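Q: Could you predict the 3D structure of Alpha/beta hydrolase family protein?
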Amino acid sequence: MTVRVLILPGLFNSGTEHWQSHWEQRYSGLHRVKQDDWETPVCTDWVQNLQKKITKSERPVVLVGHSLACTLIARWAQQHPAEARRVRGALLVAPSDTEAESYPDGTAGFTPMPLNALPFDAITVASTNDPYVTRERATAFSEAWGSELVWLENAGHINGDGGYGAWPQGIELLFRLTGDPQFKHG
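A: Sure. Here are the predicted structure tokens for Alpha/beta hydrolase family protein:
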């Protein structure tokens, strides 16, 4: 049985040049989880929306989160352990430290950072110079979540602004979680 891949953008959504948007256009079966409020999100609303999408899926799910969505995934898994068994894995890209002074204002309920072990396979991808998370904190998140940690050198926030359009390396990581051959060679 194939998996359902859910794309989870972070704060302000993912624009047209973002790798998440490129992936949606290029690969079949990827579904963006749309939130009601991208500018001033409330964690409970985002968690509830993700819960609805996962419970509606008839197939196992792989989650692809960017930035604040990494926090969302960890919080959702903590609050919904029974449904978390339906998740095959998660690709957690550029996790933001919602507790850091550098984190933008306007979000509600995303602190403290959830640090429970994830009950599914996960790969965290972090940049050595991300303005929203230090190396130490990215390492701490990955260790707490029990995920593999992949470092990208000087990749900023791993988004469209940093030149991460199609991002073939990310697709290879997604293949490792899904086993779906359409992702095998990015």
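Q: Anything worth pointing out?
A: Residues 43-56 form the longest helix (14 residues).
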